[in-house]
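Narrative of accomplishments. A recurring question from our advisory board has been how the design workflow behaves on a single, concrete structure rather than in aggregate. To address it, we present the structure tokens for one chain from the evaluation set, followed by the sequence designed for it. No filtering or post-editing was applied between the two.
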């Protein structure tokens, strides 16, 4: 049974946070909790979402927006077409350390195995 939060927030620097989904929870269901947590941190700045487990390893995996101190600015939410290597490295490091979460998403067994093999190669 999955008892962890459906997301993890990683502080990259004072103006940039990275949110990684830990299961298949939809983005719109995560937002109230992410908003509450970032507001409590008194954060304002860029936020990137890795939605691998809810959207799959597709072009709808990474999204970015701004957190205005109160909430994620949905009007400026955009899909990342060209994902910077830094973001991929953050995701890969997190997935290497938390491989069990791959089982909590929408990924097929073949996709999970492919990702695990990639993680081993990028270590």
């Amino acid at each position: 049974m999955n008892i962890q939060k459906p997301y993890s927030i990683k502080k990259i620097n004072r103006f940039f946070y990275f949110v990684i989904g830990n299961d298949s929870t939809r983005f719109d269901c995560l937002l109230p909790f992410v908003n509450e947590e970032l507001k409590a941190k008194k954060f304002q700045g860029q936020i990137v979402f890795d939605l691998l487990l809810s959207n799959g390893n597709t072009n709808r995996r990474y999204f970015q927006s701004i957190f205005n101190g109160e909430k994620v600015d949905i009007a400026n939410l955009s899909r990342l077409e060209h994902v910077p290597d830094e973001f991929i490295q953050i995701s890969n490091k997190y997935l290497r350390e938390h491989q069990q979460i791959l089982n909590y998403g929408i990924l097929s067994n073949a996709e999970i195995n492919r990702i695990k093999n990639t993680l081993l190669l990028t270590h």
